[in-house]
């Protein structure tokens, strides 16, 4: 359900989708850096956010290809 809504949203607003992907990549990179430098466990949250966002992006892409007839 969430992936269906995000798939339709990303078709209507492609620049906002690109900004979301960029924000996830930046979150991942900052979390990696902070985890390596500070060795603090709370920066693992960035990995969890990245994992959840990646699952959402992948399922939305599969929905777009299957039902909307669009390539990601």
Automatic annotation (TrEMBL):
Q: Does the keyword Membrane apply?
A: yes
Q: Does the entry feature the keyword Membrane, yes or no?
A: yes
Q: What name has this protein been given in UniProt?
A: Uncharacterized protein
Any transmembrane segments, and where?
21-37, 43-63
Keywords assigned by UniProt?
Membrane, Transmembrane, Transmembrane helix
């Amino acid at each position: 359900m969430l992936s269906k809504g995000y798939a339709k949203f990303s078709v209507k607003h492609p620049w906002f989708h690109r900004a979301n992907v960029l924000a996830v990549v930046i979150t991942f990179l900052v979390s990696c850096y902070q985890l390596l430098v500070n060795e603090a466990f709370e920066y693992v949250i960035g990995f969890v956010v990245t994992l959840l966002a990646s699952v959402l992006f992948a399922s939305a892409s599969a929905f777009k290809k299957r039902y909307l007839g669009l390539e990601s």
